[in-house]
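Lab notebook, bench 4. We co-purified these components, and the gel suggests they stay together. Before we commit to crystallization screens, I want a quick structural picture of the whole thing.
Request: model the full complex, all chains together.
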Amino acid sequence: MTTLLYTHPACLEHDTGFGHPECPGRLTAVLNVLRTGPFAALEWRDVPQATLEQLTRIHPQAYVERTLARIPKQGNVAVDGDTILSPQSGEAALRGVGAVCAAVDAIMKREASNAFCAIRPPGHHAEPTQAMGFCLFANAAIGAAHARAVHGVERVAIIDFDVHHGNGTQAALEHDPAYLYISTHQAYIYPGTGRRNDRGVGNMINVPLLAGSGSSDLRHVWQHEIEPALRDFQPGLILISAGFDAHHMDPLAELNFSEDDYAWLTQQILAVAAECCEGRVVSILEGGYSIPALAASVAVHVKALMEAPRAAQRSLIKGILQRQKARRNAAGS
Amino acid sequence: MYEFLKYEVRDAMTANPIAISPQTPLKEVEELFESHDFNGVPVVDEQRHLLGILTKFDLLKAFSLGIRAMVPHYDEIMEQPAEAIMTRDPVSVEPLLPLSRLLQKLVEMRTKSLPVVDNGLLVGIVAREDVLKALRRSTIKHEIPVHEDSPS
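Here is the predicted assembly.
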């Protein structure tokens, strides 16, 4: 089984205005790298528009209507200083949500091992009734709710390694223990939420990192906080809010992750997924504003997704061999 | 150098310096920095009581990443009044302080300049350059060359 890639041309036409860091060029660079030889095995899929039913699992209908009504016929309109709309923004946002829901459907039906949604605008800052931080709809939270409602998944985990805290995802899911949200993010920058003691109903694991944190800090928190919480939760599906702005070249933050860190982190998540939920992972593009760093980081992330089945097989065989060995040793003693 | 020990802050400071009000927009402060070679500017009330000091460092700090927006917005930040980002109750010196003491203070604080205050009123500003100039001036005529033999 392969990895699915969901994207839509409208996501390239969401125009945030001159010089805006969340620009179409980000997605162009990502898609260009995913069209190269090493990614030939990816299965590219077009996406439907999100339905009102999907959107209203998280957002009130009035919010959806209000947001779509703000889309300008021409030029740009600002929701806030960061969040800018253009004529194609509505279509792009609806295709983004559509991509996530279609990816969840395909992965729950075992059409592929995992999927990557190369979409924009991003979603993790969008709260149920407030667009903000470049985001209109809560892509990841909607995908999680979709998995529960349509596929009967009992527990859905979302891992968010974007450098900013996903206040929108948290606001949408913090009262429902069927969801586990785990976020690593830089402390004391936008949006200012995601303190360590912010735990929802015990289902929000916020791991703020100080400016300057890098590879070893990431490994430490994964090992001591994130992985144990994720395993304990035993999710039936893992979604990834994959922002790559914790990269050391990113202009909007001060964490120091590298491509190797993103490859490693993806492999770790996939290893837990292989044990808990037959490898079911849907990854969703969030931020990342150094275009070369974003393209390189998405490349290693998607490469790891593509190699997941083989890696899972290897770890399965290793487990069987270890258990056999243990039995032999027990019988021998 | 002996002459230098006689100097006081008032001998080296710039008297009656340019100062701004707490309501001056940062845009105007930046223009002031651009047109004069200031590193910082005192903030005073109408009677010239010293309220604060605003430096280029404070301006830079206003643009560092924070929780209010994903990207700091130039115009929004530059429209803020000086009092939003100035350092309040800044360290100041009196005009009669020996200049040698001021030199020590500048070194210890790693600061570039200090406001000079007399009875709460701003009367001057004294910077690294002023002290360097005073050092030079104090040694031009009066220094006894060290290589001369002492009279026997």
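Chain B has six helices and six strands. Worth comparing against the SEC data before the next meeting. Chain B has a mean pLDDT of 91.
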